[in-house]
C-alpha cells in the first residue's frame, strides 16, 4: 500500500505558526490531498484537534476580513486554507508574553499553492482577497464563542500591517474596532 508522503511544516520566522505544504496525489482523474492528519501534527509537537469547520466566500477583490481573535479561555488555534481565488493572509502575535509579540507574518494562499496555514491560539488573523470570489476554509481548534470574539483595525498604526491593495469592502464591525492605543492588548 503506497504511504502518503508527509506534509512539510515551514516555520514562520521565530514563531510557532507554520505554513504547511500539502502533498496532492495526482493521477489521470485529477488529485487527492490529505488536509488533516493527527499523526503529522503530533510528530511536530503541535497539540491541535479540529472542533469546528468554517467556510467564507468573499465576492469582491480587495475585501478585508479581520483582524480577529478569540479571547481566553477560548483562544482559537486554526488551520486556514484558500480553496478558490487568492488571499493575502496576515497573522499578528497578540500574546503578551510571546517572544514574537506584535510581530506580523504574511502568507499568500491559493488553491494552486497546495499550502495551508497553522495559526496557534493567541494570534489575530485577517486577510485581503486578491481575486473575486475567494473562498477560505477553516478548521478551528475551539468552538466559536461570540462573547469572546475580539479584534482590532486592519489599519491600526500600533501594528502597521501593509496591505497590498486598496480596501474595497470591510464589515461595519471591522471598521469599528477601537484603536489599540485606546486599550491594553499586549
Ligand atoms: C467566526 C464565526 C462566525 N460565525 C458567525 C458570526 C456572524 O454572524 C457570521 C460572520 O462572522 P464574521 O463577520 O466574524 O466572519 P469573518 O469576518 O469572516 O470572521 C472570520 O474572519 C477572520 C479572518 C478569522 O480568522 C475568523 O475565523 C473569523 O473571525 O458568522 C459563526 O457562526 N461561527 C464562527 O466560527
Would you kindly provide a written description of the structure presented here, covering whatever features stand out?
The chain is globular. A six-stranded antiparallel sheet has the order 1-2-10-7-12-5, with no helix packed on it. A five-stranded antiparallel sheet has the order 9-8-11-6-13, with no helix packed on it. It has helices spanning 38-43, 172-175, and strands at residues 8-11, 18-21, 25-27, 30-32, 52-58, 64-70, 78-84, 87-93, 104-109, 115-119, 123-129, 134-140, 149-151. The protein contains two helices and 13 strands. It is mostly beta strands and 186 residues long. Helix content is 5%, strand content 38%. The protein has one domain (49-182): Jelly Rolls. DTDP-4-keto-6-deoxyglucose binds at residues 54, 56, 65-66, 68, 125-127, 138, 144, 171.
Keywords:
5-stranded antiparallel β-sheet, mainly beta, single chain, globular, 13 strands, Jelly Rolls, 2 helices, binds dTDP-4-keto-6-deoxyglucose, 6-stranded antiparallel β-sheet, 186 residues
Oligomer: single chain
Order of helices and strands: EEEEHEEEEEEEEEH
Which shape, going by the Cα principal axes?
globular
Strand order of the largest sheet: 1-2-10-7-12-5
Question: Which CATH class is shown?
Answer: Mainly Beta
Number of strands: 13
Main sheet properties: 6 strands, antiparallel
**Helix/strand structural class:** mainly beta
- Domain tally: 1
Mean pLDDT: 94
Query: Which residues form runs of ≥5 with pLDDT under 50?
Result: none
Task: Write the CATH architecture name.
Answer: Sandwich
Name the helicity range.
under 10%
Task: Give the end-to-end Cα distance, rounded to a whole number of Å.
Answer: 50 Å
Portion in strands: 35-45%
Q: By CATH's scheme, which homologous superfamily applies?
A: Jelly Rolls
Count the helices. How many? 2
State the CATH topology. Jelly Rolls
Protein name: dTDP-4-dehydrorhamnose 3,5-epimerase
Active site: 68, 138
Pfam families: dTDP_sugar_isom (PF00908)
InterPro entries: RmlC-like (IPR000888), RmlC-like_jellyroll (IPR014710), RmlC_Cupin_sf (IPR011051)
Amino acid at each position: 500500500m503506497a504511504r502518503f508522503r508527509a506534509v512539510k511544516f515551514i516555520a514562520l520566522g521565530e514563531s510557532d505558526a507554520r505554513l504547511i505544504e500539502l502533498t496532492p496525489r495526482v493521477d489521470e482523474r485529477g488529485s487527492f490531498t490529505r488536509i488533516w492528519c493527527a499523526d503529522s501534527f503530533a510528530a511536530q509537537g503541535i497539540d491541535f484537534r479540529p472542533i469546528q469547520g468554517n467556510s467564507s466566500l468573499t465576492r469582491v477583490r480587495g475585501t478585508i476580513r479581520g483582524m480577529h481573535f478569540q479571547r481566553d479561555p477560548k483562544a482559537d488555534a486554526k488551520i486556514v486554507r484558500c480553496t478558490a481565488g487568492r488571499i493575502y493572509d496576515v497573522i499578528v502575535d497578540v500574546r503578551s508574553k510571546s517572544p514574537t509579540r506584535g510581530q506580523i507574518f504574511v502568507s499568500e494562499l491559493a488553491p494552486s499553492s497546495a499550502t495551508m496555514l497553522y495559526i496557534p491560539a493567541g494570534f489575530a488573523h485577517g486577510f485581503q482577497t486578491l481575486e473575486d470570489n475567494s473562498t477560505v476554509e477553516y478548521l478551528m481548534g475551539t468552538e466559536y464563542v461570540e462573547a469572546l470574539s475580539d479584534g482590532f483595525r486592519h489599519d491600526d498604526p500600533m501594528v502597521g500591517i501593509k496591505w497590498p491593495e486598496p480596501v474595497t469592502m470591510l464589515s461595519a464591525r471591522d471598521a469599528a474596532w477601537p484603536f489599540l492605543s485606546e486599550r491594553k492588548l499586549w
